[in-house]
Amino acid sequence: MENDVAALLARHTEALALFTARVHAVQADQWDDPTPCTEWSVRDLVNHLTAEQLWVPALVSDGASIADVGDSYDGDVLGDNPRATWDAAARAARRAFGAEGALEQTVQLSYGETPAVSYCAQMVTDAVVHGWDLSRAIGADERLPDALVHFALDEVTPYAADLADSGLFAPPIEPPPGDSPQTRLLALLGRRA
């Protein structure tokens, strides 16, 4: 279990670093550009991931529920300095998940009680996939680190078919023949590489 937790925390740190690098690569004139997430601009995408990081200390460190936090992180959380806001939120999320015993507990998510390890794994996958979205949107290198791709693929494969039903994801698409693990991951989440 200890090795599993260490590996999960390593993937979490790597996923946040990937997304951080992309946030810092956004040019001043790109914040309003579209992303593969059809409803979101670059700023909207970064705002979404930042808000998700802001939830982590409340849910993991403080034991708060969704109802306790309420709408605190709705709307624009980026303010005037999106990069600094992202950096602070990512650091706080990393600290919360990395605290002793944090991943041994249960957290209250919108769909009920969830092991913190599962929550952390979902956050890794979200940062990886949205890291690709942001890369595509700003013209950065779209190659994702192999370890993160394999982690996210293992995480999302069992429930990928149900994600489109949530309304938050596009339906899976058929990947091309001879596809790579990254292409399969993106296809499972309705993205064309």
What does this structure look like?
By secondary structure, this protein is mainly α. It has one domain (2-188): dinb family like domain (Four Helix Bundle (Hemerythrin (Met), subunit A), Up-down Bundle), CATH 1.20.120.450. The chain is built from eight helices and two strands, in the order ααααββαααα. The protein has helices at residues 2-25, 42-61, 66-69, 82-98, 116-138, 146-156, 160-163, 181-188, and strands at residues 106-109, 112-115. A two-stranded antiparallel sheet has the order 1-2. α1 (2-25) packs antiparallel against α4, α2 (42-61) packs parallel to α4 (82-98) and α6 packs parallel to α8. The chain is globular, with a radius of gyration of 16 Å. The model has no long low-confidence stretch (mean pLDDT 92).
Please describe the structure with a list of short key phrases separated by commas or semicolons.
193 residues, mainly alpha, Four Helix Bundle (Hemerythrin (Met), subunit A), two-stranded antiparallel ribbon, 8 helices, 2 strands
